[in-house]
Amino acid sequence: MKNILILPGDGIGPEIMAEAVKVLELANEKFALDIELSRDELGGAAYDKYGVPLADETLERARAADAILLGAVGGPQWDTIDPALRPERGLLKIRSELGLFGNLRPALLYPQLAAASTLKPEVVSGLDILIVRELTGGIYFGQPRERLVKDGQRMAYDTLPYSEHEVRRIAKVGFDMAMVRNKKLCSVDKANVLASSQLWREVVEEVAADYPEVELSHMYVDNAAMQLVRAPKQFDVIVTDNMFGDILSDQASMLTGSIGMLPSASLDANNKGMYEPCHGSAPDIAGQGIANPLATILSVSMLLRYSFNAVKAADAIEQAVSQVLDQGLRTGDIMAEGCRQVSTAEMGAAVVAALKNL
Ligand code: IPM
Ligand code: MG
Which domains does the chain possess? Predict the structure, then answer.
């Protein structure tokens, strides 16, 4: 029996999670996956329930689980609380405590949605890139970090540290992913300025020796941001640090026209993982039943594939999503002429129906 901890989170989190859980329950039955679900809170919902964005008991449940499925965290009602208790801190803490250093963020353009991108169809059609983001190091966690008053001026600083161990393990994830894809890896850094990036580049070069089949390139992050909109199809796998990966993955997601479609995985050294949509909690549309549940449903597919090696079930869910798009069903964020606009629940029900019939 495998246990999945469900953390719906805030904003649209609970709505999209409800649909993803229906898909997960059906997959469990249909493919005899022997999965049981448990539930808890993270982020603002946890702050409201426990007074902290990640309670110790939740962390223990997460440690004990075989995988975690997360909705999204954050919302304006928690903007004014103590910064140390903000919803985002809960997310950063669970990543760090569970050692989920390897963040996989695919940017895949569904052919049915080519018109949804703000870029020309010829620039993005067939786009399929994977950003591998380091998730538990760098400037997000570096110490010291401080706010102080010096010579009567408020000032603040953060620290951007990387050890060779941290770079080596994320570089390996990048190379491993490239090996099962098109064998091209681009390491993105700022080695013309930052000491941490110089080490990063050095270590990535060393790891490359173990992967002679992979074509490795290096790119400065500013150039990478430019190349991503100029000619995104030149990339296969990108490996980069925590902050650059945060920025570039948002940018890459918009190439596909629909951040509402993209799942992500955050993995530890043993492929235990937390899976979540790439988009946020969208408080502006929360409670309206119009959010796109497909990124969370596709996160279920990623979970089954990476943590449980349930390839058939994962493939089937992706196929069901593709069929629903073929049927012309669209939530508002991906709506196009000639399609039928549906609610969160209708979209979920359509995927369930398609999966049943596969
Ligand atoms: C992400 C988010 C988080 C991050 C925030 C919510 C802390 O932007 O997962 O990309 O910066 O990592
Ligand atoms: Mg982000």
Answer: 1-102+281-358 (3.40.718.10), 128-255 (3.40.718.10)
CB 142 within 8 A of CB 102: no
pLDDT in tens, 232-291: 999 999 999 999 999 999 999 889 877 889 999 999 999 899 999 999 999 999 999 999
How many Å apart are CA 23 and CA 58, to the nearest integer? 24
Q: How far does CA 4 lie from the centroid of its chain?
A: 17
Instruction: Using the atom order of ligand 1, give the atom closest to the CA of residue 73.
Output: 6
Q: Which ranges of 180-241 does DSSP label H, i.e. alpha helix?
A: 195-208, 221-230
User: How far is it, in rounded angstroms, from Cα 191 to Cα 172?
Assistant: 19
pLDDT score of 114: 84
- Chain mean position to CA 164: 24
- Taking CA atoms only, the protein residue closest to ligand 1 atom 7 is 88
* Ligand 1: centre distance to CA 275 (Å): 13
pTM: 0.95
Which residues are close to ligand 2, an ion, with C-beta < 5 A?
246
Q: What is the sign, positive or negative, of the torsion defined by CA atoms of 350, 355, 356, 357?
A: positive
Residues sharing a CB contact under 8 Å with residue 39, sequence separation 6 or more, in sequence order = 5, 6, 7, 8
- List, in order, residues 6 or more apart from 15 with CB less than 8 Å away: 286, 287, 289, 291, 293, 344
The helix, strand and coil proportions of the chain, stated in percent and rounded to the nearest 5, come to 50, 20, 30
